[in-house]
Amino acid sequence: METSITTSQKNTATFIHLSVFSQFLFPLGNFIAPLIIWAALKRDSLFVDNHGRRALNFQMSTFLYAIGLVLIAIPFLVWQGLIAAGEQGYISEETFENMVFPGQASGLIITALVFALLLLALFVITLFSVISAAVSASNGEEYKYPLSINFLKPLGASEQETASASSSEV
User: Fold this and answer.
1) Among 63, 94, 105, 129, which residue has the least CB neighbours within 10 Å?
2) Subcellular location, in the record's words (predicted)?
């Protein structure tokens, strides 16, 4: 197995990382585009295979973190809404019409802002991490995403040779 990384492999790995930005063009593009590129070209190089695995791991991890934040936020927002409902004991149209002053709904507003800031921070981390990974790939370096769960474990050189030998025998 070759140890040098070609320009084509660097470009492919870079493109895998940058393809996650296709999420802004179509839904789930951050999973579909890197998955297609990685699945098509992973057998060519250990370098491309590992970068593809890491890109997909990071996208799945950030998706889980975002879902987790939303699921945690919902009970807090409902609870704050019930507190804002006040003495009525139920939420009606009048409840929200009576929330003229921010002080009456301050708990709800603060809770929503905290969770919105956490989601924004996750987005910023994702943005900078993807760009850093693309730069590392274009330089021929390995990159480990922060906060990434290894769903697809990156392969070592011996594991890659074993996997490619078993797939060629089939």
Assistant:
1) 94
2) Membrane
What one-letter code names the amino acid at 120? L
Residue 69, C-beta contacts closer than 8 angstroms, at least 6 positions apart: 115, 118, 119, 122
Using a 10 angstrom Cβ sphere, with 0-12 exposed, 13-18 middle and 19 or more buried, the burial of residue 146 is exposed
Buried b (16+ CB within 10 A) or exposed e, 76-88: ebeebbeebbeee
Burial (CB < 10 A; 0-12, 13-18, 19+), residue 168, is: exposed
Contact 77, 111 (CB under 8 A): yes
Q: With cut-offs at 50, 70 and 90, classify the pLDDT of residue 170.
A: very low
Comparing C-alpha atoms, which of 41, 61, 35, 33 is closest to residue 164? 41
156 secondary structure, DSSP code: P
CA distance 133 to 138: 9
What is the residue whose two structure tokens read 């990974």? 133
Residue 89 has pLDDT above 90, yes or no: no
Predicted structure pTM score:
0.79
